[in-house]
């Protein structure tokens, strides 16, 4: 029986609003790719990201552009040259992983690691806002062991102090989303160290981060927008201490595994992150994140409604996916 590819656009409301330095949104727009073959069907979800020039239409068109090859039997390895890294390839790649698991009856985690996957501690995101509002968010989530705090602009020092005061027992990741400058980065890094911050994510614009090789890192600095695939890593050495791997950037689990393993070889710490999507998008990332130093897979926790069945979240612990969801 030949393969059949289908593509669907879906929308999930966000609980309140999700705000970063580049803007705010109230819903998660996702694309789900389904590949059916011989009575089995695999699914993959992606989140188009404007920062990388993606829209819902452009991602759909990219998948449709590869339809003939996919339905003719293209493999995950074939996708690496058939499609560029990005959200579209992620949806197709994850659908093929899921299809392989369903057709073989072998769970994906059994192919990825010798040990059974375990529940992971995920960060919980505090949206960008005025210091008082961010302190209120942090206080409401101060029982969580790891918070990821969106900053990136004027008044960041006040925001950092407000959040650390409101959640004194939580480890904190600061995510500047490229919002700092050469003029304020040294001062901000020093303040972050003084306040016990655990990690700072992408403080400077991608491609404008040379200064990171010349100044001290009193807090580890993690690349996000600066790293998509394994080939990006070499130029980040000496500038970053960690890398944030997202399936929507790498273009799927296949490329993300290569990126993770190469990052380890080069001495980077590993963070596995996400866009704001549903449990279907997080499921492969939970398997990728086994053993990572930092995990940020809270997308479903930010939604007013997740898909069913979804991942099991207990507080800040997220369990590996059941086969009814993915893999």
Describe the structure in brief.
This protein is of the alpha/beta class.
Helix-strand blueprint:
Elements: E1 4-20, E2 23-37, E3 40-46, H1 56-65, H2 67-71, H3 76-82, H4 87-104, H5 108-112, E4 120-121, E5 124-126, H6 131-140, E6 146-150, H7 156-166, E7 171-175, H8 185-194, E8 199-201, E9 221-223, E10 242-245, H9 247-250, H10 253-265, E11 269-272, H11 279-288, E12 294-295, E13 313-314, E14 317-318
Parallel strand pairs: 5-6, 6-7, 7-8, 8-9, 9-10, 10-11, 11-12
Antiparallel strand pairs: 1-2, 2-3, 4-14, 13-14
Helix pairs in contact: 1-4, 6-7
* Overall CATH class of the largest domain: Alpha Beta
What global shape is seen? globular
Classification by helices and strands? alpha/beta
| Spatial order of the strands forming the largest sheet | 5-6-7-8-9-10-11-12
The major beta sheet can be summarized as:
8 strands, parallel
User: Number of helical runs?
Assistant: 11
- Which bin fits the share of residues in helices? 25-40%
Label the CATH architecture of the largest domain: Alpha-Beta Barrel
* Tally of strands: 14
Topology-level CATH name of the largest domain: TIM Barrel
- The span between the termini is 22 Å
Average residue-wise pLDDT: 96
Q: Indicate the proportion of strand residues.
A: 15-25%
Low-confidence stretches: none
CATH superfamily of the largest domain, please? Enolase-like C-terminal domain
